[in-house]
């Protein structure tokens, strides 16, 4: 029998896993030429890395030389924060991508890179789990959606961003930009540094200098979590701007709002302010070498510090003041509620006391004692003295 190749790849759905931390994996049923069917699990970041390497192997078919000759399908870059909604919405895109991939010319669809990626791995057979953590949650794709993947997806487009200002790189791993440059985002790190490519150049770029071509990017940001998530400060930072916080290594804080430029709104006691996300680590999360390396980098610039930004959008970004963060804080609202209840209780006590005093019968004036006979004879008039004689 000849070399193994894939006949069909079917997306079944995705799993929400909780070990070693919460993440999502897609489930694929891979049908091989020997009529065997294997179930595999892959993260989207893995799939995207596979896609990038495939494009490098076939530069003509990927459109790097001439876009008109591109036959390898597009695949959007991963978002910096992959939640359940983005995982679910991406299913149609992946289903169509796999369908088109298998139907490419044999030199691509049957190459070792494709075959190796979709082969069964040991962790596909026995996923790493922890008995103390709840089991994965499975979300299957509806059966009707599997029949025709083109019915469940829109057009697949690359995530292209435009530079809003000039940026001079400060290290060899970064990439310089000119205002108006268009780049493809390969990786969005929550640190605020994004890995981008532009023609033959690649490197890290501050997210604050980029904006998407199709509109403001607030939709990619999570909504503020006023209850706050517990984080530990892994690297000290001294505030430069008035709305930033100065924190020391080892401090425990609460993250309220995770922003794309890598500057998160955090709360320490009752004070809120911005702090570099790359210097923070979620409580209970293991410290990895990648995170340690990130903390050795400098903090990215903030959006508000970019001068002469040539934005293509008239719509300004959503701005939330520190006072708004504070007033919407669950702690602040609870303290206000407690104060109101205490005030109401005191008012009720005063009202009851006043009512009791008003309902109490009023005391009658005391009758003065009758003066003695000697006192009348010494101090009263003649007519009064005659009445007692």
Provide an overview of this structure.
28% of the residues lie in helices and 22% in strands. It is of the alpha+beta class and 389 residues long. The strands form 3 sheets. It has a 5-stranded antiparallel beta sheet with strand order 8-7-6-5-9, with no helix packed on it. Strand 1 (6-17) and strand 2 (23-32) form a beta hairpin. The model is unreliable at 147-158 (pLDDT under 50).
Largest sheet: 5 strands, antiparallel
**What is the CA-CA span between the terminal residues?**
153 Å
Cα-based radius of gyration, to the nearest Å: 36 Å
The string of secondary-structure elements, in order, is: EEEHHHHHHEHEEEEEEEEEEHHHHH
Task: Name the CATH homologous superfamily of the domain at 6-140.
Answer: Phox-like domain
CATH class of the domain at 6-140, named Alpha Beta
The CATH architecture of the domain at 6-140 can be given as 2-Layer Sandwich
Q: Please state roughly what percent of the residues sit in beta strands, choosing from under 5%, 5-15%, 15-25%, 25-35%, 35-45% or over 45%.
A: 15-25%
Shape: elongated
Strand order of the largest sheet: 8-7-6-5-9
Q: What structural category characterises the helix and strand content?
A: alpha+beta
| Mean pLDDT over all positions | 80
Helical fraction: 25-40%
Unreliable sequence segments:
147-158
* Strand segment count: 14
| Number of helical regions | 12
CATH topology of the domain at 6-140: PX Domain
Biased composition (Basic and acidic residues): 352-361
Main location: cytoplasm
Region (Disordered): 282-328, 346-389
Subcellular location: Cytoplasm
